[in-house]
Fold these 2 entries.
Entry 1:
Amino acid sequence: MLGDPQDRFVLVAESEIAVLFAAEVAAAGLEYEAASLSARIGAFLGGFASGNPKAWEAYLCLVVSGGISERPSLAAAVERDLQFCRKLVIDADVSDVEHDPNVALASAIAPLLPLVLDGAFLQEDPFSKLDNRLVVAGQPRQLVSLMFDSWRNRVESAADLLESAEGRFQP
Amino acid sequence: MKISRIVARGFRGFTLERSFDCDADVVLVIGPNGTGKTSFFDAVTWALFGEIRRLRGSRDAVRDGYIESKFDDAPATSVDLYLTGAQGGALVTRSAAGVRVITELEEVLESKSAQSWIDNVVLANRRSSEGAEQMFLRTTLLGQEEMASFLRTNSPRERFDSLSSLLGVDGVREFYAYVGRLAKSMSEQVRTAEVELSRVQLRVEGLRVQLADQEARAEQIGEATRTKLVATLKRLSGDASHLGADVVSVGAQASAIDIRDAAADLESQIRALQDQGAARLNAIQDLIAQQPAVTEAVDRADQSADLRSQLDQQVAVLLKEQEQTQSEQSRLLLARQQLDQGSLHAQRANEELVAFLLSGERHIVGDVCPLCQQPIEEADLRSNIRERTKAVPGDIEETARERVKVDEAEVALADRLASITESMGVISQRIAVIEQERRAANQLQTRWLNRARRVVSTGTPPTTQTLQNAIDEEIRRGARLAELQPKASVVARQTATLAAVDEVVETREREQSASQAASEAAARANALRRWESTIAAFGASARKAETELVEELLASQQPIIRSLYQRLRPHPVFTEIGVEFNLLGDNRGEAYFMASSPWGHGNVSTIYSTAQVSAVAICVFVALNLAKPDEGLNVMMMDDPVQSMDDYNILGLVDLLRLAGGNRQLFVATHDDQIGALMRRKLRPRSQGSRTIVHRYTDFTADGPTVMTVIDEFQRADAVFKSRDVGSRIAPAQ
């Protein structure tokens, strides 16, 4: 069936866990084409490889021309139809607009791509540098020291604070 | 490092022991609500930290009461956490007694050293346990509470707080909340000080008004009155001084207080003189009354003096007689000694004679006589023998008779001496009595005279007439004082009107004291106000620091959050999200999650559904987990994250977890069987040796949940296509 010359898939790909199908469709017939193509995929995977885990790991990329970006609800409806496979709608006309087509494409097929962790790592407890930050912000070092000591010693009343401030800090 | 097994007993929902095999890349916990899914994650948290942060506020009164199973007969609470990893495996056991770690090298660590090992090796942290726990909760375990907190966030302020908590900045928030409490307490101190200040100031004001009034009244006392009073006082003082008063004279320019005091002193002294006069009168009358008794005692003593003289003579006679008797006794004693010696001599001669007669001639001529120590001559010996045989018995009898006479004379003398001694004792007692009476009479007379001299002030012994004269004089003086006393009282009452002046002085002193107290209270209030503003500024600074920290941390995570968001795709139109911050005037932060699309942007909280907001929260959590360095425990835990999500969001989340999992051990709990099945399929093992374990709770009793465990091993999926020529139409594989 997929080998049929009439088949409209322009690309298929397979990994260890999933199968990807890609097809070019026009925005005008997107809903119909998406349903038709996903049904084909369902029939293909269901009939061909019963018991193969990839049978329910199919993804269909729909490269849509004809102004799909102006019809987001249509694209959403297609993507939210989870029958047979998960669908990703890609705007083929993205190069005509001001957006970077590569970025737009990467965004569209992001669910299929591995994650790149180039963010900063969280190494330290933010609280550990609060005292220095407060000093840099202009708070007197003795006051900062006094307040952190009070916090650690569970000093909860102003009277106790004043007592512990005796000889250490006076405003 | 990964978790290979969790064993819990007597812990929250797990009354009897439950052992969970976790030796897998993915561990799914599927079960209805309330059957112990969260207890599963609590067990991990408690084993690592000995604390469950989300339950702190609801901690039972009994220590660790919130940890224990609530069912009867539950075993002692404990959790075993088996860990494996390149750094070495270990068994962490936490119980009420504390924590213990047994490492792969069979090293046993207890309490602090065990916790230290957990902090360093498992949590790979260089911070306090509390900080590590915060980090763990924001990057490793996404609990329902955290999610619900984020979902409930309505205002930008609350959203900021939730973000702060997710980023671990809540420690800072807790700190400035603490500073806020101190500031509030300080404000209360300031208010108290201000109330006290107002009270003291009011008192000062009141005293000033009172002082002004008293000063006005003092001014109203006329000069004529003053002059008249001074003149009268002078006259009365002169009279009183004649009568013995020691009054202070006042001049015309004397102050009102001096005048008043002088009048009061005069009145007081007159009263004192009257009292003294009355007392003196009584004393004189007493003297007169006592005088006959004194006279009688003295007369009696005089009469006793004659008797004393007679007794002394008797004593002299007796002493002489005693002396003669004692002389006679001496003589008798000498005679007695002579008799005793003669008797002894005769006795010995007799014994010698008897011995001679009994033993025959022993002594020979020329021997020394044992009695007289003379050489014995023959003639002497013979005559002596003859004499002795005749005289010795007679001497002995004579001496005995003489001895009896001497003994009788001695007894008579002893009786006589005893009689003399007895007589002298009687006489001595009588003399002592007479002497005692005489001394008593003298003392009585002396006391009376002394008192009389004091009372009547005379150097010579007073007579009855002298005393009577003194009584008359005292009566006259009392009469004069009685005339002066009412006059002095009148003057004293009149000068009392000058008391207003005294009140002025007193009130002025009180006003000065109150003013001093007011200035001290003002200083204290000012110091407290400085503290109040200092702490307020400090709190604001801490608040600002929190905002900056949240902004910085989230900015560093924005790229990965965006990337995750693009994969989750919770919204069809808004394909990008970002966080915008707003620092308010009070340094409090506001956070807005802004969604953007080619057509515009909007606030996530206002345009997104609950499920979509939840998806954004998951993006933030996963971003934080992925940003965590691959040190120590490398897991991601999510406790029922898909509540209220639709199928599309759930599928997106599962895909996201598959991508994000990487080398992390993934723990996910869900209450939904279908979602559980979807996760099991999607998160199946993907490489040789990897496993997915599903713990399904099928029932829940007092013992805990009934757990069925299924282990999915890796299964190689058959290739779907013959080849992978991109761009060509490919026939399916056979």
Entry 2:
Amino acid sequence: MATEAPDIEMKMDMTPMIDMVFQLVMFFIISVDFSRQELAFLKLPHSTAGIEDKAEDPRRIVINVTAPAPTEAELKNPDIARLWPQSRIDQANRILIRNKSYTFDQLLEYLKVRGVQYRPDPKDPTVAETSILIRCDGGQAFDLVKRIMQVCVHPNVRISKVEIATAEKTNGR
Amino acid sequence: MAKKSKKRQISAGEAQMDMTPMIDCTFQLIIFFIISLRFKVLENKLVSHLPTNFGSATSSQFIDEKFLTVTLRQRGTDVDDRPLLRRGTLYEIEGQSIGGTEDEVVAAIDARIAKFKTDVPDAKGKISTMPGVPHERVVRILDLFHKSGYEMITVALGSTANIEDPEFRRVIGELEKK
């Protein structure tokens, strides 16, 4: 008869695993970039004269303007329809701030409470301290950017610091 | 003595730590990292200062020989997956239209902008856009002005089109037929 191994009470040491999990959880928390929530997926226009955006002002408002949707006639073309699933069409022609869609009237109300009345610039109280970054898809009509600028110069808003986001120009373009 | 007793204990129990859960967990997390990793794309920006006086400046203020005006109009066709960019843009400098391919036109505008800056050191740029001109093409002209060292570039905020407006869509549709 084979002799059975004596029963030994074995306990696994969980400490290294827990250590490691905590380390990774901490790494996640530290490295997660919440600012990305502000950035919609867009094809930004290219520029050579643009300066690097370091996003130094945490109070800066980022306004995203998404691409225009094709017309119904254009969608009959299978090549265009393939590039434009319904989910993409739903996101077209939108003004987004932190993933929330705004009309121009709503944008005006949103900017009023961040404008000159509530946040005047200490150096020049006639304008707002707030700055704005407009991230507009290169294929979108410039009219939308102009209308955002018109909202910015509204007497109750008066935000003068406006930046236009661009992508760095590569050799290929 | 103490050393001897310790040796005996290890050989009797032969307890080894099971590394499997830790490795499992590590791999799960590594996979999650790889899937969710998105490299940060550095973006640039063109800084501008909107007028601090109420409203926009009137067009009469631009009747000034120090201004070089580039006008953009939208029509024609080209190929892209984005609707407005499928239509070509007409460029004008001081009312004179510039012909050629998109790159040729941009090169010609670049040369004119640079020459004007050489002739008039305190030259100012003005960009006037008609409804429907893509943002990308306006930024391209803005870029040319910046590159040539213009310190003041104005954008006419005058007439704008509402892209959601059915009338605007109808006009764009008619332009396409042409």
